[in-house]
Amino acid sequence: MALLNVSSPHTHRPLSTADVMQLVLLATLPGLLALTHFFGWGTLTNLVIALPLAVAFEALVLKLRQRPLGFYLQDYSAVVTAVLLAIALPPYSPYWLIAIGIFFSIVIAKQLYGGMGYNPFNPAMVGYVVLLISFPVEMTQWAAPFGALSNEQPNLLAALQHAFTGTAIDGHTMATPLDVLKNNNSELVADLFANNTGFGRWAGLGWEWVNLGFLAGGCFLLYKRVFTWHAPVAMLSSLAFCSLFFYDGGSSASKGSPLFHLLSGATMFGAFFIITDPVTSAVSNRGRLVYGALIGLLLFVIRAWGNYPDALAFAVLLMNFAAPFIDYYTQPRTYGHKAKHQPPSNEEGN
User: Less CB within 10 Å around the terminal CB: N or C of the chain?
Assistant: First the structure.
């Protein structure tokens, strides 16, 4: 009887780009469901507009570059960019705002540099920052969470009408908890939580569960080994340490507790879905630790003393710019070579 002559190592088929992108899309579902539950249909209408626009812009540029459409569209990278930007944008964003953001994300930040794998900056964050700087009013009109102003959310038809025609949704927007805390100079933090309907138990009403949803999705991606733990853990640890160091117990000048910062804004979304982009982040494990820690530091600094209540996009883009520098100084030692500046052994000296 003939036996199979198989030698080790026994390898498994690595995840393709399309496999990774589909896992990322699946992992966004818990956070997306929490956003829809607490903030209404607005994020889903963002997706309805963003997805076809992203595919159309991607196909148009590929056609102009004379590249095969099927090969490049099947990697789902344009779809992931659209989903990430749609989640980051305020719910019920107008169609023209989403179109401009998608254009800059796909055409300028991605395809202008040669397509996926060549872009130095995270495409979704480029689109977000362009919109935030250009249209600050529209980008700061966040929907009130369920139970804050009323127990009713606009239905899907009203959400679509608002997105395409600009129909007003009366009394539906309010400042985010990060913005309220940032501009507070008179009330204790405990009083803010007691007197403001936009605050929940640990952070903003609804925001706590949104962040926990993205945390669950991030843990799923870690389980699937889509990325390593280094960058997310470093970012969250750095943000928690900075907020703990500057936390004064809850005075009117407080910058917020560690739990407040971890469960507010785009913290978990950024930690697991933005900074883990393999193209624009650091490569080595040591580099990812430095990269993530510096993003957490920048995030807290801008939240506490900058002009924006939540500045994840700015922190990410700044560190995208610094990622090659970090990689240069955190390269692992090549196997079989001594560490740099290590003195020779006695045998070599003799």
Answer: N
